[in-house]
Amino acid sequence: MEVAFILEKLILVVIIFVITLVIAMYSTLAERKIAGFMQDRYGPDRAGIFGLLQPLCDGGKFFFKEEIIPAGAHKTLFVIGPVIAIITACISSAVIPWGQNLTIGDQVITLQVADVNIGVLYIFGVIALGVYGIMLGGWASNNKFSLMGAIRAASQSISYEIPMGLSLIALLMVTGNLSIGDIVANQSGFNWNIWVQPLGFLIFIVCAFAECNRVPFDLPECETELVGGYHTEYSSMKLGLYMFSEYINMFVSSALMAALYFGGYNFPFMYDLGLSENWITIIGTLVFFLKIFGFIFFFMWIRWTLPRFRYDQLMNLGWKMLIPLAIANIVLTGIITIVVDTYFK
Amino acid sequence: MSIFYFVAFLSIFFALMTIFTKNPVHSVLYLVITFFTFTVHYILLNAQFLAVVNFIVYMGAIMVLFLFVLMLLNLNKDTEPMKSTIVKIMGTVAGMCLLVTFLGAFRVIEVNNEAITPHANIGLVKNLGQVLFKDFLLPFELSSILLLTAMVGAVLLAKKDTNKA
User: Fold this and answer.
1) What is the tens place of the pLDDT at every residue in B31-74?
2) Which residues cross the membrane (chain A) (predicted)?
3) Which CATH number fits the domain that encloses residue B69?
4) For a tag site, which of A187, A297, B16, B161 has the least CB within 10 Å?
């Protein structure tokens, strides 16, 4: 039993890891294809059909590029920076439920690596840790532009964690649960949390953009002011790891938004079609990935639509708009919950 | 129990490294690792919620701010103010006094083994919330008022400059 359990989880971990890396790889291609589509050009189309081999070529290029560590850099921390970035990006997917139970013979397999009863907080902790990768890399480079990027990343991540947490508190008041597995299970059918928490979702998605350092909040790597931001001095695979961790973060936060607000693996009329349990699980997982791809597309859509914020605008938005809005959302949610509980039940 | 001793060793080791490294940024990083070992201690004590809150608040927020300030100041060995001998002697004496106080305090405490193995589910959010909001409501509210006061004070201090200009 013990061995079978460990083996099952190990296989699940490997599968999720591979899927995460493949999706991150092809997100780089999708990003350029979508950019091409929006700017009325082709995007990469030389390697393979539709440029499908482009990510492999890029990966190969990263491996064969010369590895440069600047003479003035702090060697250990310079290497540890990208390592922390990629590790924190990868471990955050552990608590996301990818589907319901799959029954093979008499073995019931849960498509979730760890159903921790504090899953939401776990994700939060890992996100909070992610900024260390950027900060250490930027500081260890011993370059003014990198340092500016690192400092921006730190203050941005701290500022946007607060409204993100507050918007989640309102969600937790509705669901009454901290486990992501239970939160998704409670949204069965079409009872998605987005219908009860639209304002919370709006705050959450803005904060997710800021935490992933995506345009319009990519101030830490703002090319027009800071050369390359925190990764100015990085080359070869270390730069590749930073890029990769950005795309993995995007994938995981898309999965999180789909799970918390858009029902995860639930889809409308899932129990009315007369399908067997296993088919519901498989279709549910596919639907979940469809939702995730939708969010990833949204991330890219925004990138090629909106210009970058100015730094003071970013701080004003975070502290003077989102935090009061999130607190108002909590108060509103509390009042509505009490009114509904006393008069409509 | 052996896990506890290993983690305790790591805590003390990294705490000492925090003190003994010359570079302030390294010092903060060792402190981050020390806090991480504290998180492991909380998990060993069945206090999952406390563990993850310690992780988020101390490692994720406060230490990032520490690092932020140190990077902004960019302290080096050259800029570090030379402490005079009298300050060093005073520091040593004060530290020794603290040690003696601690030793005296710990000598009086009886080691109670029953307290070490608490109710297994006490660390879960639900139980913790019920304890906080039923049994310890007044201290909990008082500490929240304290935090609010500190926040108002911090905002007031930060606003002072804009009035002058």
Assistant:
1) 988 998 988 888 888 778 888 888 888 888 888 888 888 877 76
2) 6-29, 77-99, 119-141, 162-180, 192-210, 247-267, 279-302, 322-344
3) 1.20.120.1200
4) B161
